Amino acid sequence: MNIRETREAWEVQYLSPYAALSRDTKGRDVPEPLCDIRPEYQRDRDRILHCKAFRRLKHKTQVFLAPEGDHYRTRLTHTLEVSQIARTIARSLLLNEDLTEAIALGHDLGHTPFGHSGERILNELCPSGFAHYIQSVRVVEVLEKDGKGLNLTREVRDGILNHRTSGHPSTLEGCVVRLSDKIAYINHDIDDAIRAKIFQEEEIPALYTDVLGHSVRERLNTMIHDIIEQSMGQPQILMSPGMEEAMQGLRSWLFEHVYKNDIPKAEEGRAQQLIVSLYKYYMDHVIELPEEYLMMMVQKGEAKERVVCDYIAGMSDSYAIDKFENLFVPKAWKA
């Protein structure tokens, strides 16, 4: 036995009967020789971790656009927090931790610059629409590695596609990530909102905090424990009814008091206008797109609108601002 085969045998012996075993993957669209060291889902995790789209997440907005301070979450730190929560749950339930981590690390690769405000405006601009969870799959299937994609397993791509609230992942590992995403952003967005002085912990309705906890630490601990206790030995990932109701209630409260608040939304209009300007410019000057995007139109027949949308969606906040300044802001000159 090589190292991979030894690990696969360990999974068969020790993981839950409901876990997705690495040896039983539905495979990749393009078959590849197996690695002698890493099982298939670990290979996917590594490919995501090393891809360019993952690195760009560090300069993409989570909620607060252009905040002054080093401690507000970015799309990258959100992704890492989701991964940590999901791995804790998966390990406790004896699920496949490699698959869980791969889905978690890849779930937001398709997010736009400027958070959900960027996503909304691209959805309006692109004739075929835009949704970050679909774009995340497009990143790993089409856009990475100069159009070759990462050739990930079907289970990882399914988990990425279905991490949204209305999604239905085909594996329990995907279900863990779907819940972990909500747990992460509910709690870290509260933490960031308190840091931004939007509200104080004491202002969160007791209807929710009496159930979930009175601090970020307490709420994380409570929700993670509840999922583990409710899901242990079950063929599905569950929360107790009271816990789920409180979590959804707190999420709705956040939408009203944080996501629609004037402070995080203060620059949203300008950010969206920036994206509109870039979209219109590249639609009129498509030849200025990087070569790999031009090749997608020439070799794969991709629509111009789709490719321009791909290019802008892949930008970090800072890169989008730099592009806008280079294209539209007058430069100083000397006689």
Describe the protein's architecture and organization.
By secondary structure, this protein is mostly helical. The protein folds into 2 domains: 3-21 and 36-265, Hypothetical protein af1432; 268-326, no CATH class. It has 17 helices and no strands. The protein has helices spanning 3-14, 40-50, 52-56, 75-92, 97-106, 115-125, 132-147, 154-161, 172-195, 206-212, 216-231, 241-259, 262-265, 268-284, 291-300, 304-313, 317-328. The protein is flat, with a radius of gyration of 21 Å.
State the main characteristics:
flat; Hypothetical protein af1432; 335 residues; 17 helices
SSE layout and pairing:
Layout: H1 3-14, H2 40-50, H3 52-56, H4 75-92, H5 97-106, H6 115-125, H7 132-147, H8 154-161, H9 172-195, H10 206-212, H11 216-231, H12 241-259, H13 262-265, H14 268-284, H15 291-300, H16 304-313, H17 317-328
Helix pairs in contact: 2-5, 4-5, 4-9, 4-11, 5-8, 5-9, 6-14, 7-8, 8-9, 9-11, 9-12, 10-12, 14-16, 14-17, 15-16
Instruction: Indicate how many domains the architecture comprises.
Output: 2
Order of helices and strands: HHHHHHHHHHHHHHHHH
**Major sheet attributes:** none
Report, as a whole number of angstroms, the end-to-end distance: 74 Å
Counting DSSP E segments of at least 2 residues, the number of strands comes to 0
Helical fraction equals 55-70%
Q: In one word, what is the shape?
A: flat
Using the CA coordinates, give the radius of gyration: 21 Å
Q: Number of DSSP helices?
A: 17
